[in-house]
Amino acid sequence: MATRTVSRFGENVSGVDRETLASVAGVIGVTVSTVLMLQSMRVFVSYMVFVIDQSNRTTLATVAAGVFLASGLSWIFIRFLGIRTVIVVSTLLLALSRLSFQFWENPVARLWLGAIAVISWGWLFFAMVVTRRDQVALGVSLGLALDLGIRIAYKTVDLPWMPGVSADLFSVLLVGALLASVYFLNFSITTGGSRLMGSVSL
């Protein structure tokens, strides 16, 4: 009888630990992905104006609208592919694109890699919102604060424009933290209803 009680207690403790770890991982994932998105957003917008040229306003508007509206595809992907697939794929796309333009200075490549990062963050963010609303609320706030802290530390010059050991290493650490957080997420959480209007509002 005592052995059975200890066994159940052990299972409960381990279950709580896993749940806590998954919650922390969710907050870290949203925090880091928000930082990477903000960096990617600045790269995308800057290079869009530089590559396309600000005189081509129709083209600029079309590209910008297409990139930002593409986040709405997350609703379709969640319905047909599932939450796990959307989170994993969008995380990998965000991580790969963000890391790529840290080391690849070609303007056209940076424009489209920044666009891919912004779009994939939208997919990831919507998938997290419909499953982990509390973690998203905290993670976004921490992400904004961390992004501000990084910019202050680097004297307002963003990491993608700071080639060097420290900026490159910090970028790799951020991407590594994002990938690690996804590994510890709890994918058994059901969605709170991934509706089209929610995706469009994003």
Description:
Helices cover 81% and strands 0% of the residues. It is globular, with a radius of gyration of 19 Å. It is built from 8 helices and no strands. The longest helix has 51 residues. The chain is mostly helical.
What order do the helices and strands come in, and which of them pair?
Elements: H1 2-52, H2 57-69, H3 73-81, H4 83-103, H5 107-129, H6 133-153, H7 165-183, H8 196-201
Helix pairs in contact: 1-2, 1-4, 1-5, 1-6, 1-7, 3-4, 3-5, 4-5, 4-7
Could you give a short description of this structure?
α1 (2-52) crosses α4, α1 (2-52) crosses α6 and α4 (83-103) packs antiparallel against α5. The longest helix is centred in the N-terminal third of the chain and has 51 residues, at 2-52. The termini are far apart.
Terminal CA distance reads 54 Å
Large-scale geometry: globular
What's the helix-strand series? HHHHHHHH
Q: List low-confidence stretches.
A: 1-14
Question: In what range is the share of β-strand residues?
Answer: under 5%
Number of helical stretches of at least 4 residues: 8
In total, the number of strands is 0
Chain oligomer state: single chain
Taking the sheet with the most strands, its summary is: none
Radius of gyration: 19 Å
Structural class: mainly alpha
Helix content: over 70%
Q: Mean pLDDT, nearest integer?
A: 84
Task: For this entry, give a set of tags.
0% strand; mainly alpha; single chain; 81% helix; disordered N terminus; 202 residues; 8 helices
